[in-house]
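Trying the structure run again after the queue cleared.
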Amino acid sequence: MSEEIKEATVTQEQAGKAPGERNDRKTRQGYVVSDKMTKTVVVEVEDRVKHALYGKVQRKTARVKAHDEQETCGVGDRVLIMETRPLSAQKRWRVVEILEKAK
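Done. Tokens:
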């Protein structure tokens, strides 16, 4: 029993984390494109990637569903979202803050 505990603490020390400490979560910025669901918003996140062969910068967009507990987000708002545990079949993000309200 004590050997197992020693091995577990050694592996945690090797990882460079204290016991019970979790990894950093991904954060993204995007624009709200739909707020018609209850406590859920659809956020469009844009990523700019360079083409591997030709070098041209391309825009790739992904639409993700994010949890909005207070239902304060509206269409056109720029928001900061953070990765979280699965909240539903498609919801894996939550709204951290509204960076800019739509005009």
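Residues 25 and 90 are 18 Å apart (CA to CA). Worth checking whether this holds up in the mutant runs.
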